[in-house]
Structures are given as structure tokens and as C-alpha cells.
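Subject: Sanity check before I submit

Could someone independently write out the C-alpha cells for this chain? I want to compare against mine line by line before I put it in a report. The sequence has 206 residues.
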Amino acid sequence: MRYAAPLLSAGLLFLSFVPEWGFIPAHVALVPLLVSLHRGSNLFSIWIFGTAFAAMFFYWLKVFSLLAPILMTVVHGLWTVLALWPALVLCRRKREGPGLMMVPVCWVAMEWLRSLGPYGYEWGVIGYTQYGTLTIAAFASAGGIWMVSFLVLVSNALLTWAWLQSDRRWLALPLIYGLALIGLSPAARLSDNVESVRDFALIQTN
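---
Independent answer below. Compare away.
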């Protein structure tokens, strides 16, 4: 099935926002799509991925209007194309390494850009998938949600690179990266600095 990879990635990314354990598939969600880009997928495949994810993620907007989730699905698909287009161009030029390393940079730039202005939105920012694990979420203390997104996307890029190599010893690279994240995480420092626990509430206006 031609579009199995983008649809699989869309499903994994959607599951990444499930409470408690969703932070795990977030680190592999984009791998099927990125591998398919290396094997000849086009911009339409990226759009399929973006719209399929958005159709599942933004379904709740139907409480406001039946048109709202449809518009968000189309818009989010276009943002996704913008984020992954540079990687696709480099992969077609047989520069998979630079192409994959562009994914975290361009994706985070896309997330930031679409959050700006009166019509901006941060729904679906991949960094939010990590709220179930303080180990990764704690990096937000250094670079905000954008750093958390970047670190998750680097995991996806490294796993894709390792998968594409004929020498399976490259699979040690994402493992080393994961251990480095655990070792460098500011989670322990933040926990030590907590003097007391306080209850608080947030009020969101719509």
C-alpha cells in the first residue's frame, strides 16, 4: 500500500498524545514516514501524513462547528508539508544525513511559526507528548517546549538514519543518544529544588 508509511506515522503520532505512555511512541512516530521519503515518497505523502494526524487530533473541534476540524485538517497538512519539504529535497539529492538533520530544525520552526499571531495555535506540538516523563519534559526549563520538541525529533531522525544503514551497528547511535538524554536531564536538579508542593488551577477562556 503506497501510503501505508505516512498513515502509520500519523497513527503513531496521534497515540503519542495519549496520557501516561504516549511519550514512548513519540520518539519513533516519524520513522516510517522518513524512511519512505528516502525511498521515493513525494510531497503528497507528507500531506497525507499531516492531514491524517490532524483529522484524528482535531476531531474535537466539531463541538464548535463541523467546518472547524475540516479547516484545521487542511491547514495542519500544509504546515506539515512546509516542515518536511527541505528534508524531501535533500533526500532526493541523495543527501539523507543532512536531510534528516534538517527535520528537527524545520519542524520546530514550523511549530513556532504556526503558534504566532491571533490565529496561531500550539495544539499538536510534539514536545507536549513528553509530559508523562519528567526526564525529557525537564529540558523545557532550558529551552521551553521547543527544546523538548527538538530532542524528540532528533530521536526520530537518528533512528531513521540507523535504520537506513546497511551496518546495523549504527543502531547503537540512537541508544547512545537516549542514554545521553537520561544522563543530562535536569529532572533531578529540578526535583531537588522543589521546596513544597502547592495545588493550583488554570482557567482557559475560549
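---
OP: Matches mine. For the report I'm noting this point. The first helix runs from residue 4 to 15.
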